[in-house]
Write a structure and sequence with these properties.
This protein has two domains: 94 residues, no CATH class; 239 residues, BirA Bifunctional Protein, domain 2 (2-Layer Sandwich), CATH 3.30.930. Strands 1-4-5-9-8-7-6 form a seven-stranded mixed β-sheet, with helices on both faces. A two-stranded antiparallel ribbon has the order 2-3. The longest helix has 40 residues. The protein is an alpha+beta fold and 364 residues long. Helix 3 runs antiparallel to helix 5 and helix 6 crosses helix 12. The N and C termini lie far apart (50 Å). 42% of the residues lie in helices and 18% in strands.
């Protein structure tokens, strides 16, 4: 399939940046800025759509397009950072005024403080719930380092040297770009480490913390959590992958949840797909879908990515790709938690506010 040259043209990228800067500047509050971020830095933004076309280019054209899009993303990212700082400062000033507390005031029982009952963080609980689902299917839980060798994080997963995700605008490098060590951007390196250490059949689940150079806002955080799964065995197919993820979705969200595979591209899987859930708010109903803010009028919500393990990745791990096949998948724990409980702001998950976490209880 040939790339969409119009998306990658210099004029298109310039217009996308200009429109982004205008919307970011006009954002009056963090909610407006959230919409601007989704529209201009999200997965369906013009720059993101253009970025997807790079993979089908060759040689110098790929490098030139990658540089152009990388510069555009940096401009948009910097504008978002500046406006976020401005709006957060305004927000904090208003909170200081509206939430003043008289610390000298005593409680009704005559004491000046009250003992709060502790609770587990919901991200810990949901990670264990997902792990339990897979342990029941015979999977093992695998772990790996958070400061990861660049080879494990990128090269071994068939990610080319000029791939945009390897730039410092997306990835935290330890010390410098030449250090060869990054804060892992995904838990996929655990899959490669497992394949190098074990012989098939392999069935593992890898929950863990990952890092990307995102600013904290309602839907993003530079430190978040993923859960990835890997299965390598004889005669595995996409139908095995679909059945596995359908089982996970029904366990987490109920028997009436619907899923779909949408064709996509990932360097380490082929074929690849995005896993979508039917919107749990509008249920994909045509009468409600246009006004649904949760799915933005599409009827479906993206949950994660998946696909059959690329033969190049299997061969890198020393596994005979003619004898074995495999599937892999990954989704964000924060996104899963937000879907399951209707959490709308990422700040609630990272600010350690007991008023938020205590509603989830011990989660045993």
């Amino acid at each position: 399939m040939s790339p969409d040259s119009n998306l990658l043209s210099e004029d298109s990228i310039s217009q996308a940046v200009e429109k982004a800067l205008g919307d970011i500047k006009q954002a009056k509050n963090l909610e407006d800025l959230k919409n601007a971020r989704l529209n201009h830095a999200g997965e369906k933004s013009p720059v993101a759509l253009a970025n997807r076309e790079i993979g089908s280019l060759d040689g110098a054209a790929k490098a030139e397009a990658g540089k152009r899009i990388g510069e555009a993303r940096n401009i948009i990212k910097n504008a978002l950072e500046i406006r976020t700082t401005e709006l957060q400062s305004e927000r904090e000033d208003s909170i200081l005024v509206s939430e003043r507390v008289d610390v000298t005031q005593v409680l009704a029982n005559g004491s000046a403080s009250s003992l709060l009952i502790g609770s587990r963080h919901p991200l810990t609980t949901i990670a264990e719930q997902i792990s339990d689902v897979f342990i029941a299917m015979g999977y093992e839980v695998a772990e790996g380092p958070e400061a990861e060798a660049e080879w494990f994080n990128f090269d071994s997963l068939n990610i080319s040297e000029d791939h945009p995700s390897r730039s410092s605008s997306d990835t935290f490098y330890v010390e410098s770009l030449d250090s060869g060590v990054v804060l892992r951007t995904q838990t996929s390196p655990v899959q490669m480490r497992t394949m190098l250490e074990r012989k098939p059949p392999i069935y593992v689940i890898a929950p863990g913390k990952v890092f990307r150079t995102d600013e904290l806002d309602a839907t993003h955080t530079p430190v978040f959590h993923q859960v990835e799964g890997l299965a390598v065995d004889k005669n595995l197919t996409m139908s095995n992958l679909k059945g596995t993820l359908d089982h996970l979705a029904k366990t987490m969200f109920g028997d009436d949840i619907e899923t779909r595979f949408r064709p996509s591209y990932f360097p380490f899987t082929e074929p690849s797909a995005e896993l979508d859930l039917k919107c749990f708010v509008c249920k994909g109903e045509s009468k409600k879908i246009k006004s649904c803010k949760t799915c933005r009028g599409e009827g479906w919500i993206e949950w994660g990515g998946c696909g059959m393990v690329n033969p190049n990745v299997l061969e890198t791990a020393g596994i005979d790709s003619k004898k074995y096949s495999g599937f892999a998948f990954g989704m964000g724990l924060e996104r899963t938690l937000m879907f399951k409980y209707g959490v709308t702001d990422m700040h609630d998950l990272v600010e350690a506010d007991l008023r938020f976490t205590k509603q989830f209880g011990l989660g045993i």
